[in-house]
Amino acid sequence: MENKGNKRFYLGLMLIVIGAVLILERLNLLPWNVADLLISWQMLLVAIGVFSLAGGNKTGGTILIVIGGFFLLPELISVPHEVRRLYWPLILVAIGAALLFRHKGCKTQIERGVEGKDFNEFDDFVIFGGREIFVNSQSLKGGRSTSIFGGIEYDFRQAKLAPEGAFIDSIAVFGGCGIKVPLDWVVRNEVTTIFGAFTDKRGDMFNRGASYDPSKTLVIRGMTIFGGFEVKYV
């Protein structure tokens, strides 16, 4: 519940800032170029990155802040054309370095996820791609999932939750995350959606007599922006 409150706080703060900037700009109390800078796709990436860092997703948050910050620089200072040409290569290098660093620390865990072996926690990041992960853990605690212009799908149908339940902290930006879960799991939605959606497609199964087990609860939290999160059985 504390994490859900934090999400609402940051989202509310972001909306207040956007509204205040628009009001000041409409009243001619703020130069239009400053308003355009504060309400831009670059600043949106930075805001999402900060939100991700606050939620504990260091890799995805850092990458979003770096990309947004890089493209904000030309709006703040004069950047020679020769330097601008290096932007995308530098961003690719930064993303690659971040992924290598993360892979070094979580190598065994990630490899097990791909092979469908037993692991209790996960931390996955996808950009401009897709990934399908089969999980057989008999004491699943959850983890983090970040997808940017890509998608991740988890198959938990052969897994069992830890006695205290589990969580997934998901960030999807122009991407999506999907999970396949056993019919008796309770899936609690705490995802903040902005031009996105959270859908549970197990409805027909419950119409056929399936029922939840309150002791098996999976909490989904995080944010989707121009993305989606989907829960299904098949």
Automatic annotation (TrEMBL):
InterPro entries noted in UniProt: LiaF_TM (IPR054331)
Q: Which UniProt keywords apply?
A: Membrane, Transmembrane, Transmembrane helix
| Superkingdom in the source lineage | Bacteria
Q: Which Pfam families match?
A: LiaF-TM
- Annotated LiaF transmembrane domain residues: 11-104
Give me the segments passing through the membrane: 9-27, 39-56, 63-80, 86-102
PANTHER family listed in its UniProt record: MEMBRANE PROTEIN, MEMBRANE PROTEIN-RELATED
Name of the protein: Cell wall-active antibiotics response 4TMS YvqF
